[in-house]
Design brief:
heterodimer, A: 221 residues, alpha/beta, Spore Coat Polysaccharide Biosynthesis Protein SpsA, Chain A, globular, B: 366 residues, 7-stranded mixed β-sheet, two-stranded antiparallel ribbon, 12 helices, nucleotide binding (chain B)
Chain lengths: 221, 366
């Protein structure tokens, strides 16, 4: 098997992945992320509210719980900015029940400059004019986008507006001029998916399901 | 009297408030249902709430024509697969029944069955629309062996010359035909041999699991059909795969080793998770004692060139089809020549020679 191209991209398109997890799900979920796709990231970090030297997990100064998600996200990005900015070009957030095909993410980002303020993910349309990215499907910020995000909090341009992490982040990024990118492939098919493959491939979502009104681009079943 | 009046009042009050609570409850439950739709963020990070159980077949409305858009893979090099398709002709017959046509067989038809050189669906009744072959048997587990015998008989009578290998699968088996052709390309259809997931009990040379699918060579099929005319094998048994295995031994058809060049199994009696996850199948499970070769769980369980999985429900049919034939990690050139894996230097030398030859040919053509 010839992995030459994949290896070249690994050097050229450096991705730092940080995984949103917690003390209770380290062993049940994050461990399996670490054993599978996280290995393909240039740098992989696991963000929790408690430090765990052995795993290893970063201890952020937040509490656990759904209402703390946005705080966790902000603190995580700040941590990454302070300690790992030089190690990567792109900065990805994922949950501990997200599966990433990192090689394909590199292909998506290969033609883009990390100095441009842009971020990618599964684009949703409501509430934010340019749309925002689904938290669960994972989203990735360019280096410039990360810089602007951290600066916005330092200057209080953005504050903790809501517990709805992905929406609040999307609002902040729009405010500081970070573009919401189109992550679809050259045939217009989605690359970030908020559900497992079976759901997208075979489920017929009912007409009243929220998904229909959220997707930025037309849904294909 | 004053006390009975106040009692009446109390009763009326209680009754009235009961009705009031009941009406409010109804109203709230209706309103909250609406609200749930407006507050989707609760479901946002909990998509599993929406993901219905595999057994909910109501979700799978109709089949999907997965591979209809041929244009999407036009830059893919399929030369080897297409060459093998011509060279190793496989007839597949799928064991199904009238009650499973819509629920199961339809999804087999929409996914892997199209890659067989010839595909037949065997049922107790004929169905011209699907289409299925009517074997004129009854349905039921105890009829499985009888159905198998009649199915192979039908194939022998009508399609013997149209294929080299004859594969039996269930309507909850997923078969990767391209890998099966690769496996069989090293054998001659004139050999009396058959392949599948080999089990060890009861039959000296072992027998092949029914659900994981098994494939007979042309010679094996010929001998199998003849065995019944000459009464060498018994017609009745409630255990289809075991009975077939016993018969194969009697007629001197060899039980082949279907493992890949690294010794990993290719035919699987369960879906990938059951084999890949260490500890998934309890140690007391029958499986551990049945496997002819040492059973492996975890990453060594399954060949990269796996041929089949069993207990695959309708949703998983499409899931597997997507993962196997569509999803790819970018940047890898899959130039698969597993036999040469042991000697990479020699392989690249051979490939360089091949390329040189082709170049010479091209030059001489011009």
């Amino acid at each position: 098997e010839d992995a030459g191209e994949a290896r070249a991209l690994y050097e050229r398109v450096r991705i730092l992945c940080w995984v949103m997890t917690g003390p209770r799900t380290l062993e049940t979920k994050a461990r399996h992320v670490r054993a599978t796709w996280a290995r393909h990231c240039n740098v992989a970090l696991f963000m929790s509210s408690e430090v765990d030297e052995r795993f290893p997990a970063v201890g952020l100064p937040v509490q656990e719980g759904r209402h703390q998600l946005y705080w966790k996200t902000i603190r995580a990005f700040q941590y990454v900015h302070r300690h790992h900015l030089g190690q990567a070009d792109w900065f990805l957030k994922a949950d501990d029940d997200t599966f990433l095909v990192v090689a394909n993410l590199r292909w998506l980002l290969a033609g883009r400059s990390p100095e441009r303020p842009i971020y990618f993910g599964k684009r949703f349309k409501p509430f934010v004019k340019q749309g925002y990215m689904s938290g669960g499907a994972g989203y990735v910020l360019s280096k410039e986008a990360l810089r602007r995000l951290v600066a916005a909090f330092a200057s209080r341009t953005c504050t903790h507006t809501s517990a709805v992490e992905d929406l609040a982040l999307g609002q902040c990024l729009e405010k500081v001029g970070v573009e919401a990118g189109d992550s679809r492939d050259t045939w217009g098919r989605e690359t970030f998916h908020p559900f497992p493959p079976e759901s997208h491939l075979t489920d017929k979502f009912s007409q009243s399901f929220w998904y229909w009104s959220y997707c930025y681009y037309p849904i294909v079943e | 009297m004053a006390s009975s009046k106040s009692l009446m009042n109390l009763l009326t009050f209680t009754f009235g408030s009961a009705i009031g609570f009941f009406v409010c409850y109804l109203l709230f439950s209706i309103i909250l249902e609406e609200q749930v739709k407006i507050q989707p963020h609760i479901l946002h990070n909990d998509p599993h709430g929406q993901h219905s159980a595999d057994t909910d077949n109501n979700q799978l409305q109709g089949q999907m024509n997965f591979n209809a858009d041929f244009g999407q893979h036009k830059d893919e090099n399929k030369n080897i697969a297409e060459g093998l398709y011509q060279k190793v002709k496989i007839l597949c017959w799928v064991m199904t029944g009238p009650q499973n046509l819509e629920k199961k067989a339809k999804h087999v038809k929409a996914t892997w069955a199209q890659r067989c050189n010839k595909i037949l669906f065997m049922s107790s009744e004929e169905n011209k629309d699907f289409p299925t072959v009517g074997l004129e048997t009854k349905e039921g587990r105890d009829q499985l062996y009888w159905k198998t015998i009649k199915a192979f008989q039908y194939v022998y009578d009508h399609y013997f010359d149209d294929a080299d290998w004859f594969m039996k699968a269930d309507d909850d088996t997923y078969v990767i035909l391209d890998n099966l052709r690769w496996l069989l390309s090293k054998y001659s259809p004139e050999q009396p041999i058959y392949f599948g997931r080999r089990f060890k009990p009861y039959v000296k040379q072992g027998y092949m699991s029914g659900g994981a699918g098994y494939v007979l060579s042309k010679e094996a099929l010929k001998r199998f059909v003849a065995a019944f005319k000459m009464n060498k094998c018994s017609h009745s048994s409630s255990i289809e795969d075991l009975a077939l295995g016993k018969c194969m031994e009697i007629i001197n058809v060899e039980a082949g080793d279907s493992r890949d060049t690294s010794g990993r199994e290719t035919f699987h009696p369960f879906v990938p998770e059951h084999h890949l996850i260490i500890g998934y199948l309890p140690k007391t499970f029958w499986y551990w004692n049945y496997n002819y070769y040492p059973a492996v769980e975890g990453p060594g369980c399954c060949s990269d060139l796996a041929v089949s999985f069993h207990y695959v429900d309708s949703v998983t049919m499409y899931h597997l089809e997507y993962l196997i034939y569509h999803l790819r990690p970018y940047g890898y050139l899959y130039r698969y020549n597993p036999d040469s894996a042991k000697n990479p230097e020699e392989q690249s030398k051979n490939e360089a020679e091949e390329d040189n030859q082709k170049l010479k040919q091209k030059i001489s053509e011009n």
